[in-house]
Each structure stands twice: as structure tokens, then as C-alpha cells.
Amino acid sequence: MTTATTDFTTLTGTYTLDPSHSRVGFVARHAMVTKVRGSFNEFEGATTIDGDTPDNSTVALTIQVASIDTRNAQRDDHLRANDFLDVANHPTITFASTAIKHLGGSDFEVTGDLTVRGVTKQVTLPLEFTGSATDPFGNQRIGFEGSLVINRKDYGVSWNAALETGGVLVGEKVTLEFEISAIKNA
After folding, report:
1. Cβ distance 50 to 57 under 8 Å?
2. Do residues 116 and 85 touch, judged by C-beta distance below 8 A?
3. 30-48 b/e with 16+ CB inside 10 Å = b?
4. What does the longest C-alpha to C-alpha distance in the chain come to?
5. Burial, 99: exposed, middle or buried (Cβ in 10 Å; 0-12, 13-18, 19+)?
6. Spatial separation of the C-alpha atoms in residues 52 and 8, rounded to whole Å
7. Residue 27 main-chain phi, psi, to 5 deg
8. What pTM was computed for the model?
9. Comparing 169 with 90, which gets the higher pLDDT?
10. For the structural domain made of 2-184, what CATH number should be given?
11. What are the residue boundaries of the Lipid/polyisoprenoid-binding YceI-like domain, all occurrences included (predicted)?
């Protein structure tokens, strides 16, 4: 049974992200005419929900950069290289919440420290609580989804190539997308 309740008291506890039912993705402009979508296939994280005071909840996420997948091996190798994410020196991207604000209903703002390529910046991620359910194995699950736009140059990801027709090969803005399913710890 799936519930889109806003009574969070029943959800109090610590939850582990379920990577096989979650997605951490991104979208970036390519050649000024289209968008390239990709995801990170390996990540882990947890959230602790304080159902009585949702603002006291926490979130932490660690992404394995080498798991980047844009469905193009050559592009993925370039994104792993020093021109972009420099996986040899910065194997993970991390996020740790510093504040969570319940805006009412199913809407939250999660503020925290996002570290990409060794550079940490504070970001605020709007998240929507998409519901809770007990799966066929008896696990209590919760879901959230949201996205935010960052400027990759703020994190030292500045490689680009000029196009003959004007503009550049890779846009500066990157949309980070989160579709999260998490299982309550025993």
C-alpha cells in the first residue's frame, strides 16, 4: 500500500537508500542544440527522519564518480578524466545536509554541502515526498524526488571547446536529478 501522507510521525527512523530502485542523474546542454542525460549507477546514502520535527532530519549521499553513464563509453571516459570530474583524484561526489525545512504538505528544502572535484559549495535542493509503502518483503519504504541546477565551473569543471558556429560544446549549467527510494533500517 502506498501512502502520500503528510503525517511524518509514523516515518521516524533511519533509512538506507536503495540504489536498485533509485536514480541519481544529470542533464547538461551539448553543442548548444541538445541535452545529454546521464546517471551515476553506484551510490549510497542514508536519511534519518524525525517525524515529530522534520526540520531535525538529515541526509547524506556518496556517489562513485567512476560509475557515470551517459550511454556513450567514449564520452563517459572523457567525463571521468581530468578535463571534467578527475575520478583519479576525486573518486566521489558527496552531499551532507546542514538544514532541512518542511515547507508544508509534501514539500521540503534540503540545504547542504555538495562536494564535486574537491570543491564544496552550499546548495538547496527542493524535494517532494512521494509517499511511503510496505513492500512485498515487509520493508517500509519512502520516496523523494527533486532537482537543482548548479554551475559546473563553480566546482572547477571548466573544460570546453568553442564551436565554429559560435557558442561552446558543453553548457555551464548542469541539472542534478534525484529519484530516491529508501528502506527503513531494522
Report:
1. yes
2. yes
3. beeeeebebbbeebebebe
4. 58
5. middle
6. 7
7. -135, 135
8. 0.91
9. 90
10. 2.40.128.110
11. 14-183
Task: Name every residue whose Cβ is closer than 8 Å to that of residue 166 and which is 6 or more positions away in sequence.
Answer: 32
| Residues sharing a CB contact under 8 Å with residue 164, sequence separation 6 or more, in sequence order | none
Q: And the C-alpha cell for 148?
A: 537543482
Return the H-helix or E-strand segment holding 77: helix 73-80
Q: What is the pLDDT of residue 179?
A: 98
Beta-carbon neighbour count of residue 3 at 10 Å?
13
> What are 30-70's pLDDT values in tens digits?
767 788 999 999 999 999 999 899 889 999 999 999 999 99
Burial class (CB in 10 A: 0-12, 13-18, 19+), 49: buried
* SS3 call for 50: coil
Eight-class DSSP state of 168: B
Q: Considering only CA atoms, which of 185, 183, 164, 157 is closest in space to residue 68?
A: 157
Distance CA 44, CA 101 (A): 23
Whole-angstrom Cα distance, residue 59 to residue 83? Answer: 30
Residues belonging to the chain: 186
Which of 175, 113, 114 shows the shortest CA–CA distance to 145? 175
